[in-house]
Amino acid sequence: MTDDLKCPNCGSEHVYEDGSLWICPECAHEWNPQAAAAAPADEVRPGVRDANGNPLSDGDSVTVIKDLKVKGSSLVVKGGTKVKNIRLVDAVDGHDIACKIDGIGAMNLKSEFVKKA
Predict the structure, then answer these.
(1) What pLDDT, on a 0 to 100 scale, did the predictor assign at position 37?
(2) Are 65 and 79 in contact (CB under 8 A)?
(3) What's the Cα-to-Cα distance from 4 to each of 12, 25, 32, rounded to whole Å?
(4) DSSP secondary structure string, 43-69?
(5) For the segment 44-96, what is each residue's pLDDT rounded down to a tens digit?
(6) What is the pLDDT of residues 4-49, one digit of tens each?
(7) What is the reported pLDDT for 45?
(8) Residue 26 and residue 10 in contact, taking contact as beta carbons nearer than 8 Å
(9) Do 116 and 84 form a contact (C-beta atoms < 8 A)?
(10) Which of 25, 27, 74, 83 is the most buried (most CB within 10 A)?
């Protein structure tokens, strides 16, 4: 095992090779180091785009485009609400944005209901 190879997802040094892929046992991320070396460091995750088709990245600000009910609560995120400093996460039930909304708190959003601000 090489000492300088780390998981690009979580930074763990405990990675192992399986065929042409490297695997991180801590976060289960798989990658090809040759493809990762050729890709730019600030690469936008494929498929994470807003309602208008603009690519989203970590730290962007977005605006909610329609009223969204908060599951398990009587609260509603109103259309036009600006959300700062989003974080892209692996989609859980289609929710691929983690954020914190003033007055509501931490929650996940679907990228199809936001537009880049």
Answers:
(1) 60
(2) yes
(3) 11, 17, 15
(4) PPPTT-B-TTS-B--TT--EEE-S-EE
(5) 446 689 999 999 999 999 999 999 999 889 999 999 999 999 999 988 788 99
(6) 678 887 888 888 888 888 888 888 888 887 765 655 555 544 668 9
(7) 46
(8) yes
(9) no
(10) 83
Note the Cα 96 to chain centre separation in Å: 6
pTM score: 0.59
In the block, residue with structure tokens 């892929």:
21
Q: What is the DSSP string of 57-112?
A: -TT--EEE-S-EEPTTSS-EE-TT-EE-S-EEEEEETTEEEEEEETTTEEEEE-GG
Strand pairing partners for 109?
A: 97
DSSP state of 113: G
Q: What are phi and psi of 85, to 5 degrees?
A: 55, 60
